UniProtKB/TrEMBL annotation:
Family membership noted in the UniProt record: Belongs to the PanB family.
Cofactor binding comment, as recorded: Binds 1 Mg(2+) ion per subunit.
CC cofactor: Mg(2+)
Subunit structure of this chain's protein: Homodecamer; pentamer of dimers.
Record's function text: Catalyzes the reversible reaction in which hydroxymethyl group from 5,10-methylenetetrahydrofolate is transferred onto alpha-ketoisovalerate to form ketopantoate.
GO molecular function terms noted in the UniProt entry: 3-methyl-2-oxobutanoate hydroxymethyltransferase activity; magnesium ion binding; methyltransferase activity
Protein name: 3-methyl-2-oxobutanoate hydroxymethyltransferase
Organism: Arthrobacter agilis
Keywords linked to the UniProt accession: Cytoplasm, Magnesium, Metal-binding, Methyltransferase, Pantothenate biosynthesis, Transferase
Lineage, highest ranks first: Bacteria, Bacillati, Actinomycetota, Actinomycetes, Micrococcales
The protein's enzyme class: transferase
Major site of localization recorded for this protein: cytoplasm
Pathway this chain belongs to: Cofactor biosynthesis; (R)-pantothenate biosynthesis; (R)-pantoate from 3-methyl-2-oxobutanoate: step 1/2
Length: 292
């Protein structure tokens, strides 16, 4: 089953019906909810997930039929110029989240709990998540960590906050993990599966796995009832996620093995900027048609 066969009210990549008062007179598909992702897992369907940090990218992805948008703490090293995800603050995450949430009408919007906003206690996690929902207007939060955070997941779910778990390679723990390294190889696979089961049992509505072998990801997907999302975790998960600047070829430099580049926006923008500069220097822009 493909993403175009996802349960109502959202049809994945299918064309959106018109809104009331427009040609056709029918209603647009409604908002994707967490139970639609569960239906996708139950029915063998798949869904797409991308990061988004601003209104225009969010609008484009929403209109393109991306089911889930992640306001990732990856904004730290994809928007704010940091080397890692660690420096971004909760206040900054709320700002990005609000921009994305305001720009979308269909996608489920999930925001990362940034480093330092949930580790102290379940109460701290609830307080931070409440801010993301109330001020950032998101629909769910994502939290890095294994079975040790099961009690935190329970506290969030009791508070009415949907939680996406994030296991495997967890960028916020890169110093403890020894850098960007694949997790869950060999005997360590059992720990990844145990983490997923503990977090799903605690109430996480979805389990995201980053940089784990496909065999381990497949074992996790078989062990939990909830949908799974992969990034560098093979093709057996319910959903897939990429950082949008990687997917669209905006970021330069070496790409991770799991990234597929679907466009070359870096070259497009570079060519446009050079053409603009050339016309300004030549005095051909602005022309008469751009002048009052």
């Amino acid at each position: 089953m493909t993403s175009a066969e996802l349960p109502a009210p959202y049809g994945g990549g299918a064309a959106a019906p018109s809104t009331p008062g427009t040609a056709g007179g029918s209603k647009r598909p409604g908002r994707v909810r967490i139970h639609h992702l569960q239906q996708a897992k139950d029915q063998g369907a798949r869904f797409a997930m991308l990061t988004a940090y601003d209104q225009y990218a969010a609008q484009v992805f929403d209109e393109a039929g991306i089911e889930v948008l992640l306001v990732g703490d990856s904004a730290a090293n994809n928007v704010l110029g940091h080397a890692t995800t660690l420096p971004i603050t909760l206040d900054e995450m709320i700002l990005f989240s609000r921009a994305v949430s305001r720009a979308t009408t269909r996608a489920l919007v999930v925001a990362d709990l940034p480093f330092g906003s949930y580790e102290v206690s379940p109460q701290q996690a609830v307080e931070s998540s409440v801010r993301l929902l109330k001020e950032g207007l998101v629909h769910a939060v994502k939290m890095e960590g294994g079975a040790d955070y099961a009690d935190t997941v329970r506290a969030l779910v009791r508070a009415g906050i949907p939680v996406m778990a994030h296991i495997g390679f967890t960028p916020q723990s890169e110093h403890a993990l020894g850098g960007y390294r694949v997790q869950g190889r060999g005997d360590a696979s059992r720990r990844i599966v145990d983490d997923a089961v503990a977090l799903a049992d605690a109430g996480a509505f979805c389990v995201l796995m980053e940089m784990v072998p496909a065999e381990t990801a497949d074992a996790v997907d078989a062990a939990v009832r909830v949908p799974t999302v992969g990034i560098g975790a093979g093709a057996g998960t319910t959903g897939q996620v990429l950082v949008w600047q990687d997917m669209a070829g905006l970021r330069g430099g070496r790409q991770a093995t799991f990234v597929k580049q679907y466009a070359d926006l870096r070259t497009v923008l570079s060519d446009a900027a050079r053409a603009y500069a050339d016309e300004v220097r030549a005095g051909t822009f602005p022309g008469p048609e751009h002048t009052f």
